[in-house]
């Protein structure tokens, strides 16, 4: 009986470590995707031909060995699985952390450090649904002055039409700020989970990398929509 009781904390610790590794690994998958996606979005700064050529290239990579959009289908499947794993691990760990016994100081300190990750992550999840519906699944324009197949079936035209609408751009800006905060902490946390912060130097380096990735992402993603909103890109 004592053996069974004493084994429970050890099992719980192993499960918690496994969940943290799952969240770190899936998080790094998304970091890689976000950087690649940012690179593609920046093509808009070079005009319609550059952006649309890149968008079409993504659909034809690997032809004829792969079908049209073949690589995208594989990428989307990996991202969906990663998203499910990341969300499951995150909410399970947050639930366990909330149930754990702590001093009042520890509880307040942890809450202040993780609350914005929790709610920021939830906001990002909702934004992801909106973003995919708008630009990938349904492909609709929120710009009443620019509608129809010529906009919906032209990636560059849809991008420009969408970010000419201030409220839509504001949602995007808020999402990118939330993403930057999420990445800043997430990259550092993943480094800790994977054992890459064992010394003071590597600890500081992981912090710096997290801040750098966040800064690059927020600037890179906001350049095209803000350039569109202020009429630099038309």
Q: Could you walk me through the main structural features you see in this protein, from its secondary elements to its overall organization?
A:
By secondary structure, the chain is mostly helical. It has a single domain, classed as 3 helical TM bundles of succinate and fumarate reductases, CATH 1.20.1300. The protein is built from eight helices and no strands. The protein has helices at 2-42, 48-60, 70-99, 104-137, 149-152, 155-163, 166-193, 200-229. The longest helix is centred in the first third of the chain and has 41 residues, at 2-42. The chain is globular and about 60 Å long. The model has no long low-confidence stretch (mean pLDDT 90).
What's the number of domains? Answer: 1
Mean pLDDT: 90
Q: Strand pairing plus helix content: what structural class?
A: mainly alpha
How many β-strand stretches? 0
Low-confidence stretches: none
Tally of contiguous helical segments: 8
Major sheet summary line = none
Helix and strand string, N-terminal first? HHHHHHHH
Distance between the termini: 72 Å
Overall form: globular
CATH architecture grouping: Up-down Bundle
| Radius of gyration, CA atoms, in whole angstroms | 21 Å
> Strand content of the residues, in percent?
under 5%
Here the CATH topology equals 3 helical TM bundles of succinate and fumarate reductases
What's the helical proportion of residues? over 70%
> What is the CATH domain class?
Mainly Alpha
Protein name: Succinate dehydrogenase / fumarate reductase cytochrome b subunit
Keywords: Membrane, Transmembrane, Transmembrane helix
Transmembrane segments: 21-40, 71-94, 115-133, 169-188, 208-233
